[in-house]
Amino acid sequence: MLDKAKTRLLGVALVLASPLLAGEASAERISGKEALAVMRAMDLQPQLGTDAVGDPQIQFVIDGLHAQLNFYDCKKQDGRCGSLQLETAVDLENGTTYRVANAFNKQYRYVRMHLDDEMDPYVQYDFEVLHTDARTHLESQIEMFGKLLASFTEAVGYY
After folding, report:
1. For this UniProt entry, which residues form the secretion signal (predicted)?
2. Cα gap 112→85, rounded to integer Å
3. Please, what is the Cα angle at 39 between 49 and 151, to 5 degrees?
4. pLDDT tens-digit series, residues 19-68
5. Which domains does the chain have, with CATH numbers?
6. d(CA 78, CA 57)
7. Is 95 left (phi over 0), alpha (psi -120 to 50) or beta?
8. How far apart are CA 91 and CA 85, in angstroms?
């Protein structure tokens, strides 16, 4: 058992550490408004809305393509989310093939090409913002997504 002095010291340590832990916890997630500010600074023409379950969703334009940022693992009390997904699609006259999608997916680990019912391709790029500076990490992931889009559009013949 802890004696009273040790218990008090432990209590003081926890009280002193709690603001630091709270600050760290908030830095590990991002809200729709915070993400919107990052994307405005990147000149992506973002528009903030919500998805079907009430989580934030941002529509934007990157490299001439319409895209969206989807939010997951959101905390209802503060609207901050820990997992994000960048997504875009292209409408091809004749669609593409499973072979093209499989070749693309074999080459890349974190982005996935899918085909809709008309065989038009779309990509989804998932990432977390936990244990990082969420704003800086979001900016770097959007930049990476832009690079991946160049490979995606080349793979499907969309120019």
Report:
1. 1-27
2. 11
3. 105
4. 444 444 445 899 999 999 999 999 999 999 999 999 999 999 999 999 99
5. 4-156 (3.30.1460.10)
6. 16
7. left
8. 20
Q: Which residue has the tokens 């890349």?
A: 108
Residues 128 and 30: beta-carbon distance below 8 Å: no
Interval 127-143: pLDDT, tens: 999 888 889 999 999 99
pLDDT tops 60 at residue 12: no
CB 56 within 8 Å of CB 71: yes
- Cβ density class 91-103: b for 16+ within 10 Å, e for less: eeeeebeeebbee
CA of 148: how far to CAs of 43, 88, 91, in Å?
Answer: 19, 11, 18
CB atoms within 10 A of CB 5: 8
Task: Give one DSSP letter per residue of 117-153, joined into a string.
Answer: TT--EEEEEEEE-TTS-HHHHHHHHHHHHHHHHHHHH
